[in-house]
Specification:
Order of helices and strands of chain A: HHEHHEEEEEE
Largest interface: A-B, 41 and 41 residues
Number of domains of chain A: 1
Number of helices of chain A: 4
CATH architecture of chain A: Orthogonal Bundle
CATH class of chain A: Mainly Alpha
Oligomer: homodimer
Number of strands of chain A: 7
Radius of gyration of chain A: 17 Å
DNA sequence: GTATATGCAAACCGTTTGCATGGCT
DNA sequence: AGCCATGCAAACGGTTTGCATATAC
């Protein structure tokens, strides 16, 4: 009888029909291995993989993050013109952006209440509403 | 007796103690000459100046936009990872981002009502809250 | 005259791509 | 076997910078 054990990370990849290659498993484990949400840049994830002793090229990190986003497993967040952030939390929620160290964290979506939103102009519909709360350390 | 005429554009520069050089006057006129708000990228402003027959280098457009932002005359808006947008409307207000043609327009701030905002985490204070409403043409 | 702005081209940095190699099914 | 993923290095696009020249005050 075949063992049917599939951990969280394996399932995460399988749910998007992405082959569980060594590199993808490495990155996916770093991203969702512990079930927590994470915000990374290509560089930070590359560094994390390198520090973990895993060999992945930076181009593959970029390609993989893009693949994860295309597959709906992650979301790309635009907060800083100079680099891209990727979020494992794909639900609609606001973000804290720490201006001092250019870090991104989640804000609880229940704590944000938008009572009224501008109407979409003629011929357009709202695709999404991005809320970024910029923080300064006191 | 000296003529004291100072038009809107001249005053705009003067209010920020910026020397009214030919290039700055050219760009400032394109930006606020008619009193309307405008959203530009370095490239779009450079093109506008070129089409108007004015000679300004692209590097100067970048430097000038940065100078205008540093002086508090404009605001840089982050909506698209790949380029920077600059807004002549420095008041706090939400933006529409047209995903189809990567264009930025203002949304009326009176139409946005945020009833509740997440508390800033320990040791931090809210610097600003950016709201970007992404639009898709229907 | 002196400080500052400009132009140019080269440097920069994050990201993407082409192509040859290697791995998954 | 066949398709897809990977790695590398080169290309890319937006932005910045160093330095010589020109301009405002």
């Amino acid at each position: 009888m075949t063992e049917m054990v599939t951990d969280h990370t394996t399932q995460w990849l399988a749910s998007a029909d992405l082959r569980p290659t060594r590199q993808r498993m490495t990155l996916a484990t770093l991203l969702v291995g512990d079930g927590k949400n994470r915000h990374v840049t290509a560089e930070s994830l590359y560094d994390a993989a390198s520090k973990a002793g895993e060999k992945v090229s930076l181009a593959t990190v970029y390609n993989t993050l893009k693949a994860f986003c295309d597959a709906g497993l992650m979301r790309e967040i635009t907060v800083d013109g100079s680099k891209s952030y990727f979020d494992t939390n794909i639900s609609d929620h606001p973000h804290f952006f720490w201006e001092d160290d250019h870090t991104l964290t989640d804000a609880a979506s229940e704590q944000l209440e938008i009572a009224r939103l501008p109407d979409a102009p003629e011929g357009a519909e709202i695709a999404s509403v991005d809320v970024v709360i910029r923080l300064r350390r006191t």
